[in-house]
Every structure is written in C-alpha cells, then in structure tokens.
Amino acid sequence: GYVLPWGQMSFWGATVITNLFSAIPYIGQTLVEWAWGGFSVDNPTLTRFFALHFLLPFMIAGLTIIHLTFLHETGSNNPL
C-alpha cells in the first residue's frame, strides 16, 4: 500500500523496493523491469501495484478455501 498514494515518497519507495529484486541472480533485472512495466518507475508501475493489491486478497482467499477443502477431505493427522 506504500506506493498507491503516488507521491514523492511513494515514487522513491517503489524505486528502492523494486530494485531489491535486482539482487536475485540471473532473473533480477528482468523481474525489476516486469514490476516497473518498462525501464523506470512510471504509470504502468502504479497500475501493476494497484492490480496486485486488488487481486491479492482474492488469491489468498481462494488458496485458503482450497487448503481447507483438502484438509477436510484428508483430515488432520497432527500427533499431539
């Protein structure tokens, strides 16, 4: 949510946070450019972060439902 207000602090926060991905060997720079939607932080970056923040709760809810369904089918076998 830090990037969504899109002020000066948000711009530099997005730049710093997304540049952390560049430390990943081999795929880091590609990840950074994908997150940015180009070669710098710009409007596509804001769109991607907004879409991520909108879709992420639904993805988490879906995975939780799938997890609970599998847990219900197989049962819990945690030894106490």
TrEMBL record:
Its main location: mitochondrion. The keyword DNA-binding does not apply. SUPFAM superfamilies: Transmembrane di-heme cytochromes. Keywords: Electron transport, Heme, Iron, Membrane, Metal-binding, Mitochondrion, Mitochondrion inner membrane, Respiratory chain, Transmembrane, Transmembrane helix, Transport, Ubiquinone. One of its GO terms (biological process) is mitochondrial electron transport, ubiquinol to cytochrome c. The chain crosses the membrane at residues 6-28, 49-70. It comes from the Eukaryota. Component of the ubiquinol-cytochrome c reductase complex (complex III or cytochrome b-c1 complex) that is part of the mitochondrial respiratory chain. The b-c1 complex mediates electron transfer from ubiquinol to cytochrome c. Contributes to the generation of a proton gradient across the mitochondrial membrane that is then used for ATP synthesis. It is found in: Mitochondrion inner membrane. Residues 1-80 form the Cytochrome b/b6 N-terminal region profile domain. This is Cytochrome b. One of its GO terms (cellular component) is mitochondrial inner membrane. InterPro entries: Cyt_b/b6_N, Cytb/b6-like_sf, Di-haem_cyt_TM. It comes from Coccyzus melacoryphus. The keyword Disulfide bond does not apply. GO terms for molecular function: metal ion binding; oxidoreductase activity; quinol-cytochrome-c reductase activity.
